[in-house]
Amino acid sequence: MLYHLLYPLGAHSILFNVFKYITFRAIMATLTALIISFLLGGPLVEYLRTFQIGQMIRTDGPKSHFEKSGTPTMGGLLILFAMTFSCLLWTRLDNLYFWIVLGVTLSYGAIGFLDDYLKIIRKNHKGLSGKKKLSSQLFIGVLIGFVLWMDPGFKTTMAVPFFKNFNPDLGIWYIPFAALVIAGSSNAVNLTDGLDGLAIGPVMICGATYLLFAYIAGHLKLAQYLQVTYVPGAGELCVVCGAMLGAGMGFLWYNAYPAEVFMGDVGSLALGGLLGSVAVVTKHEILLVIAGGVFVIEAVSVILQVASFKTTGKRIFNMAPIHHHFELKGWPEPKVIVRFWIISIVFALMAVSTLKLR
């Protein structure tokens, strides 16, 4: 909004030219979302506590989690509001990719909100059925894939890390591919959200990584130099990622161990969808497996656990997702959280390194 209001004034004063720079607007979006989160976080926590909007705890989980029962949840609303307000303030509103990413984020957030709402009203940790949740996510993903496929300026090629000359064109098959990336990312982040601050840390680290990728993909000279797919307009997603970082830091202030509020599905599904849609738009879809390695490990641990139990009747891990396994092995919760953050940083560095390893 500010870009459209103030940048034209650059003809009268050179000071307003700063609004054309993506880097400036990304920094300001980060700070704006952070300030909003700080200002609204406390009142939101009190509101959720007053109306007893508390987390339901799995009865088969670690015993140390039982004392968390009743802790306010749906704190992801804080992230979504702060991020959305900041984005609308600092992003170019004539950018298609901005609306695609924001649309995925808010629609997935709506699915998560419904899931959280059902959990609280019915006092059942299952909430929205898995089939309804996944079908809704895939439907939205297919719509996004279709919009991108119809966009004449968007390529349906798939970039493969480490292979600069191998970019298969998926054509119409890019639609289901995009849907799987977005929905898969959303659910992987959702599975990771099980400890205080565990999910938001890797989300911010992965988001910062894709802020860099978005800037490179949207910059013609950098894209050509690093031999990545140039996506005109993708640089505007730097502002979105910046706003997410600011909102995430503000949320972490209240979500850090011991948490005053939990993210809830309204936050985890939305943030996962954001990462997936940014990965799709910037043409770094497969690289999300590396940059979001912690999310992949968490999701795979659940898949392996379920597959093993159904086929052999035995469990591979003490409990899945894998962060609970380490808790049951005797690791204190803060140690699990920080070590997963460290692993996430390592994965992010590996992802960035692929820009030169081609």
Describe this entry's structure for a reader:
- The chain has helices spanning 2-6, 22-50, 76-90, 96-122, 130-150, 174-192, 200-217, 220-226, 237-255, 265-281, 288-291, 293-312, 322-328, 333-353.
- Helix 4 runs antiparallel to helix 5 (130-150) and helix 7 runs parallel beside helix 14.
- It starts with a helix and ends in a 5-residue tail after the last helix.
- The chain is globular and about 60 Å long.
- The model has no long low-confidence stretch (mean pLDDT 92).
- It has one domain.
- With 358 residues, it is mainly alpha-helical.
- It is built from 14 helices and no strands.
- Assembly status: single chain
Radius of gyration: 20 Å
* Tally of individual domains: 1
Overall average residue pLDDT: 92
Biggest sheet, open or closed, and with what strands and sense?
none
Principal-axes shape call:
globular
The secondary structure category is mainly alpha
* Number of helices in the DSSP assignment: 14
Helix content: 55-70%
Unreliable residue runs:
none
Number of E strands: 0
Features:
single chain; 14 helices; mainly alpha; globular; 0% strand; 358 residues
Summarize the structure.
This protein is mainly alpha-helical and 358 residues long.
Task: List the topology elements.
Layout: H1 2-6, H2 22-50, H3 76-90, H4 96-122, H5 130-150, H6 174-192, H7 200-217, H8 220-226, H9 237-255, H10 265-281, H11 288-291, H12 293-312, H13 322-328, H14 333-353
Helix pairs in contact: 2-3, 2-9, 3-4, 3-9, 3-10, 4-5, 4-10, 5-6, 6-10, 6-12, 7-9, 7-10, 7-14
